[in-house]
Amino acid sequence: MIFTNISILDENMQIQENMYVGIKNDKVDYIGKEMPISDYGEVYRNGKGKLLMSGFYNTHAHSPMTLLRGYGENLALQDWLNQRIFPFEAKLDGNAVYWGTLLAMAESLRFGIVSTTDMYYFCEDMARAIEQSGAKNNIGRGVTNFSDGDLYDLESFAEMKALYGNYHNAAGGKIKVDMSLHAEYTSNPKTVQQMAAYTKSIGANMHVHVSETKLEHEECKARHGGLTPIQYLNSLGLLDNKTTAAHCVWIEPEDMDIIKEKGVTVASNPISNLKLASGVCNVPELLRRGINVSIGTDSVASNNSLNFLEEMKVFAISAKEKYQDPTAVTPVQTLHAATRAGALSQGREDCGLLAVGCKADLIMLDIMRPNFAPIHDMANNLVYSACGGDIVMTMVDGKVLYQDGQYKTIDIEKTIFETNKAAAKILSQL
After folding, report:
1. DSSP conformation letters of 7-33
2. Are residues 60 and 14 both part of a single domain?
3. Where is the Amidohydrolase-related domain (predicted)?
4. Is 422 a member of any domain?
5. Which among 235, 189, 238 is positioned nearest to 209, based on CA atoms?
6. What is the pTM of this model?
7. Fewest beta carbons less than 10 Å away: which of 143, 234, 344, 388?
């Protein structure tokens, strides 16, 4: 496919106009000012007034929780979990998870998300839905352990191990399997140590919740002789693996030193953290220290959508208010967090940039809409003015999956119907 006379957000986060972009197989093969000699097949001739850029990488989510959208509102985190979320999740089955995941993939593609880092269970049903959608995903079976037993005796570990064997690098590498320790407060030191060792032995990535709330952070210190969650997890070797740490709202300066030293990615989830009154991640200080910061939506049960452009805007402006500095997080830093930083956190080194040789995980926006005019600075408009409805195409590995309201791989009417049916069935059992 060749895009003609189109504006692009290039690998340096700079805007270039009247460009030609050629896609060959699953990669970007050509970017230039002239029509290339090579034949790229289908020609997209309506590039004028459109912007082509890297798709978004959502680095912390629980996709099947589309089933719980709007179900638990106006509650503190622990009440939200114990009164609404956990009772509902106890009734889940593979069918519900399949449809909930497929709905999340449809919503993701609609809003320009090409890849998601997920943590949940019934993961093989999730993987089936993800593979059908054509999207990318780093999927992890979340592990908890409230007993003194070995990790290796847990049913969740057996499921995690099987998932890795069956789906790691499946769908031509679009699906990767991460190891996922749920959190410090849902496990014990032995489990953490064993998870760390096992993850290292197979060379997998790690995905873990860290310091989401002040209560979680302070209770960890009380349990472990003053060690914060980051310090505790690091002492047991977990951060020796390539790790994405979700939230990190209450981390301390020493934690940031460890995160930097270990090359941990912080996945900030601004809307969920604000909605649950958990706090605001100190993104400005993390960026100042050169830490890789990406963006996650968390689940739509605490968000309540996967509108990633909305997430990006809140990512930028919440830090400005919290730290009383209007220069705290720039639009270019936000765009980097939404794209390249997220791809790197997932171990997708050839993704997250519109550049020759990179995977063609691209989105197109209509920039001729009223909310884009006038354009003094495109990066500013993308972060502060754009909305999810401006996205008119989403492509993964060179294949168009969503365009102008049409899904190429998902029967959206059936998916909505089956998700509603599955949610209603669970509610009838509560």
Report:
1. EEE-TTS-EEEEEEEEEETTEEEEEES
2. no
3. 52-400
4. no
5. 238
6. 0.97
7. 388
